[in-house]
Amino acid sequence: MIVYGIPNCNTVKKARVWLDENGFSPEFHDFKKKGITAEKLSEWCEVFGWEVVLNKKGTTWKKLSPEVQQNVIDQKTAVEVLLQNNSAIKRPVVEVDGRAVLISFSEEQYSAALK
């Protein structure tokens, strides 16, 4: 299991605590330090949809220029923006056996998917 995110994100913290408390010991991939690939982002977009992977509610998205925001019209353009602004990725993303299974954090979703 791999948890992708950034360590100071409250949602990532909640997910990691839940995983630890429920007996999981995931590897943590800090995409601020380790980066993220276009291939990985595309995989996640295939699973969750690019509109979900791109966090439009976050500060990073809101700080982007209107021109940049308006140019995000599909998966390809979303991935391009996310590569340049990885704090705009919805997080955390949890992969099990190399497959993305969860995005963001909800105790109910984690329980259903992982127990």
Automatic annotation (TrEMBL):
It comes from the Bacteria. It holds the Pfam family ArsC. SUPFAM superfamilies: Thioredoxin-like (SSF52833). Belongs to the ArsC family. NCBIfam families: arsC_related. This is Arsenate reductase. It comes from Pedobacter nyackensis. The lineage of its organism: Bacteria, Pseudomonadati, Bacteroidota, Sphingobacteriia, Sphingobacteriales.
